[in-house]
Amino acid sequence: MESEVKIGLECHAQLLTRSKLFCPCSTDYHNAEPNTHVCAVCLGLPGALPTVNEQAIRYGIKVALALGCEVQPEIIFYRKNYYYPDLPRGFQITQYDFPIAFNGLVRIESDGEEREIRIRRVHIEEDPGRLVYKGTIDTAKYALVDYNRSGIPLVEIVTEPDLRSPKEARIFLNKLRSILEYLGVFNGDLEGAMRVDANISVAGGERAEVKNISSYKGVERALSFEITRQKNLLRRGLKVKQETRHYDEVRGITISMRTKEFEEDYRYFPEPDLVPIRIAESVLDLKAEIPELPDEKRKRFITQYSITPEHATALTSDKHVADFYEAVASRIDPKLSATWIADVLKGELNYRSITMREAIKRLSPDDFVAILRYLKQGIITERGATVLIREMLDRGGKPDEIIKRKKLATISPTEIDVAIDAVIKANKNAVADYLAGKNEALNFLVGQVMKYTRGRAEPKEVRIKLVDKIQAYDLRSDAQ
Ligand SMILES: [Zn+2]
Fold it and tell me: Residue ranges of the chain with pLDDT lower than 70?
């Protein structure tokens, strides 16, 4: 089923330069009033001339190198002509025949299989302004335009149609985001920092392009919707038209916008106000600036810390998580650290929809080392450690203070014995059931002891003690 689906992505990622691509306006527009970060160049006023931001080019080359692309010796900016309210000049300055690079490769893991996704090209272009609709695109009476975003440098990364399912597309995007963040040229947490257009075709039909996918979750949803739509058409003997469709994030559907335009419609021609840029010599210097990327870091974690490949994947997908892990693992058992960061902490972050970057403000590596140390010393149980992590993420504070306040310290062996005796006495039927071979009765009894001790005992320990006590307990002597 899946292999008959072909998906190619055009990913536009905002580069973290301080000024825009062709003018000195600040790129720090995310919390600014609309149309306050603008000038004659990015408003497209007649006669305004562009100047290239060198940092944006360097970032673009770094991205190309990190994706294993062949960086080209000469890049030329082109005009892509089209009219739209978010593009006041009537053309977008982008690259065409002479982009920054061709032919790269990104490895992803999908259903336990390693897959190679080819990168067709990488180029730099300017972001248009942002259109804001009141309601949805097809019902809004008017649109508002904010040009703060106009001229922000974007790196566009185009894949070959190598992705086979919406899920793979999501995995690819996460990997791409991770690589860009490792490079320090991108911040995926910023609103609209990554926008994706997708080409989708189902065997037997034409290819449709879906534009305006602006969230990581949106990608999987938009593609699933589009695949179902195309399959339904083909099943009914209808044709899938070659067209451009708009993704409506609110409703989770794609809407037909126009029949697909072709390249010649854009009348590409070299931008006469910018000279071609030769980049050959600087490329070698930039190679030395490429940091350790997720795949290499993953390999190193497996050998250096003897952790499982699964943990290594989970710990290296986000650079901030990887840094946090190394700060903790250098001071306390690396395997225990891997389990508690990959399995527990990441789960708690997901549940709260917060990133490691935000979480670290409340829960530092020092705090985490302290929690694991208390756990290893038996001062708190695994459950207590989890409660501690949750409390720190939600409200902050210091581990020792929270242990006291929430009474998380483990109870003494004598107290556990008392609890088990009480539970056995109060649940004779369950004890009899367990002796008769019903194992689920034991789970029930463990649960009762945990309740009795308000979660301060270690369930594994309770289970062992409980079995010992029940076996020693002479049920018949109790019978009448
Ligand atoms: Zn400007």
Answer: 1-3, 258-261, 282, 474-480
- For residue 279, the model assigns a pLDDT of 83
Q: Which of 381, 405, 429 is the last residue of a domain?
A: 405
In this structure, are 332 and 264 located in the same domain? no
What is the residue-averaged pLDDT of the chain?
Answer: 90
How far, in Å, from the CA of 97 to the mean position of ligand 1? 26
Distance from residue 151's CA to the centre of ligand 1 (Å): 7
The answer to whether residues 128 and 84 touch, using CB atoms and an 8 Å cutoff, is yes
Residue 6 Rama label (left phi>0; alpha psi -120 to 50; beta): beta
Is 36 within a domain? yes
Distance 26 CA to ligand 1 centre (A): 8
CA of 57 to the centre of ligand 1 (A): 18
Which phi-psi region, left, alpha or beta, contains residue 261 (left: φ > 0; alpha: ψ -120 to 50)?
A: beta
State the distance from the centre of ligand 1 to the C-alpha of 99, rounded, in angstroms. Answer: 23
308 and 277 in a common domain: no
**Are 18 and 89 members of one domain?**
yes
Q: What is the enclosing helix (H) or strand (E) of 239?
A: none
Q: How many whole angstroms from 25 Cα to the centroid of ligand 1? A: 4
Domain count, the chain: 3
- Please state, as a whole number, how many other Cβ atoms lie within 10 Å of the Cβ of residue 290: 13
Centroid of ligand 1 to alpha carbon of 82 (angstroms): 20
Residue 30 CA to ligand 1 centre (angstroms): 15
Domain that holds residue 400: 299-405
Share of the chain above pLDDT 70, in %: 97
Helix (H, G, I), strand (E, B) or coil at 224: helix
Same domain, 428 and 385: no
Q: What is the 9 CA–ligand 1 centroid distance (Å)?
A: 29
Looking at the fold, whether 214 and 349 belong to one and the same domain comes out as: no
CATH number of the domain enclosing 439: 1.10.10.410
